[in-house]
Amino acid sequence: MTSNTQVIYVKPPKEYPIIGETMKIAKSTIDLDCALSQGDIIIKNLVLSVDPYMRGRMRDPSIESYAPAFEFNSVMTGDTMSVVIKSNNPKFKQGDLVYGKTGLGYFEEYSHVKGAYADIGYVVRNDPKTTGLPLTYYVGVLGMPGLTAYVGLQKYGKPKKGETLYVSAASGAVGQIVGQIGKALGLHVVGSAGSDEKVAYLKELGFDGAFNYKTQSIDEKLKELCPKGIDIYYESVGGEMLEHVLNHANNFGRIVVCGMISQYNTSNPYPIRNIIYVLTKRLTMSGFIVMDKENIAYEEEFMRTCTQWLLEGKIKYRETVAEGIENTPQALLDVLKGKNFGKQVVKIADL
Amino acid sequence: MTSNTQVIYVKPPKEYPIIGETMKIAKSTIDLDCALSQGDIIIKNLVLSVDPYMRGRMRDPSIESYAPAFEFNSVMTGDTMSVVIKSNNPKFKQGDLVYGKTGLGYFEEYSHVKGAYADIGYVVRNDPKTTGLPLTYYVGVLGMPGLTAYVGLQKYGKPKKGETLYVSAASGAVGQIVGQIGKALGLHVVGSAGSDEKVAYLKELGFDGAFNYKTQSIDEKLKELCPKGIDIYYESVGGEMLEHVLNHANNFGRIVVCGMISQYNTSNPYPIRNIIYVLTKRLTMSGFIVMDKENIAYEEEFMRTCTQWLLEGKIKYRETVAEGIENTPQALLDVLKGKNFGKQVVKIADL
């Protein structure tokens, strides 16, 4: 038997998750030499992706939402990159890299994946072997966050050259790509983030304007940096930020609702008092989830395009890499509190 | 000189308009025999339309919004039907019926309209002479409210047979048409209104369900009457009603924001705390204004279709007709307070 450290989801937190209480690290064992039933695979997990939407899965399972609730006292799941070490499934060969997709990859060192689960939760993704791009990119800029940026801006933002795009959480896993695609499309791009270091990074990426929403007046900075008003708001924050943007939105503006992280960890949602601007300014506010079928359909086009951009250096991508599976709960908490810089991932093993 | 009673807008109200203080009736005179400059016309006004959106025009003119602010101490304007009694403009002949459109028709007994204003504010609409339909219909079911219902439901609601449509303010100028079009398209249609008499009328019109939002629990009635959830919400009310609908909306629901009357007359907007459903349920919330060019473009198609429906009895239309120009301020106040039943109009003269 081989030792197998796991990330366990215990129960729903009231506000922020509490390490050791609502999620924890546990030691288990796994038999890597067991005989595999038809369809089963054994994988060694290499990279785990921790993302804000995971907070929404930490709920009472009787509440329906887009991503299934985590099961109490079970191994947590999310997007992962792994390598197949043993297979009795024709879709997966030993040595294949596999992507644990749509939040289904197990957060543990090794996984014995049953056939039916392997078929829906994992897909071969050997691209890193030929592109030479870091494995971590495949759960970030080339994974769910990248696709989210791409689909959200293009399909729901309907950008037109010369328009103003404002991105909140702009140095995050999704925001930094949104901004860079925006620049490539000829938009005036403004972003906000929660530290001066992050703001400096946004300017490095070519954002036309950037500010620290924690130390500067959101209202004044939006006025100053978006002098023509906001045509597209790529929304990841919600609450007070949304209220400010509604004040500065232009007629016929589009609000692309990708996330509302400020509202995930509170039992007292922020009350929005100016939603009437949706009417008077004829705004369109569109919520979307990248995992919906019609959005996942963009994946191939996106991966091809974005790989090219990365290889040509047209898009940069900043990551914070935590080392070791035991740091996963803290890494997730950091994301929910905005302490990460760029895409937060956890590297748990080398290939 | 001929006596000419006028409706005067005095100044912006803080909450509800106050008759005699923020809007009033005034006596003036007009010279109906004067020589007309090139382009001028003199019209006798027959029907005035009072509508909720007019409250938004009673504001500080420095605040921009979709409909221009009323000018202080000036004749109020809105949609009207009138007859030309004298013309020095090739577009208008004596005896022509004219529609004072996009809120530009003068609210007075007679108007001497300058050429430049006549060209943008008035259009010949002799249809009632051949259809035999009441003049009042041409500022209601066949005017701006009818077009609003038609465009809003079709273009922004994107209805699919079998879906559930919920209409607030359902017995009003717009709502009663939305519901009837919804039934014609094969939707499950539910409406709410503010009196049992109005609710009975909705059932008469063929609504599948209807309730009195003042005496019944909105939450319980939505649960009961929309057992499959709400796919399309035709929004005219805002505030607490919107919050309830967000709770009952289905994934991929559309919220067509036509108005938010509950928020027009208050200095303390209702705080919405569940806007996060836009994200988790992937809702689209679209504000629209019928006067926008791309919506006005539907006018011809709409008038042809709707005239046919009315003549065939497929669509019914309920009105409250106030008699006499001096009752205009009260009629408008009634609309803002929901005291009218159906479309509120003011008849000020016979043809």
Automatic annotation (TrEMBL), chains A, B:
Give the record's keywords alphabetically: Oxidoreductase
- The keyword Protease is assigned to this record: no
- Please name the SMART domains in this protein's record: PKS_ER
Q: Which domain of life is it from?
A: Eukaryota
Q: Which residue positions does the secretion signal occupy? A: none
For this protein, the record's Gene3D superfamilies field holds: Medium-chain alcohol dehydrogenases, catalytic domain (3.90.180.10), NAD(P)-binding Rossmann-like Domain (3.40.50.720)
Residues annotated as domain Enoyl reductase (ER) = 86-346
Q: Does the keyword Oxidoreductase apply?
A: yes
The record's section on InterPro entries has: ADH-like_C, ADH_N_2, ER, GroES-like_sf, MDR_fam, NAD(P)-bd_dom_sf
**Pfam family name, one:** ADH_zinc_N
Recorded GO molecular functions are: oxidoreductase activity, acting on the CH-CH group of donors, NAD or NADP as acceptor
Q: What is this protein called?
A: Enoyl reductase (ER) domain-containing protein
Q: Which organism is it from?
A: Phycomyces blakesleeanus (strain ATCC 8743b / DSM 1359 / FGSC 10004 / NBRC 33097 / NRRL 1555)
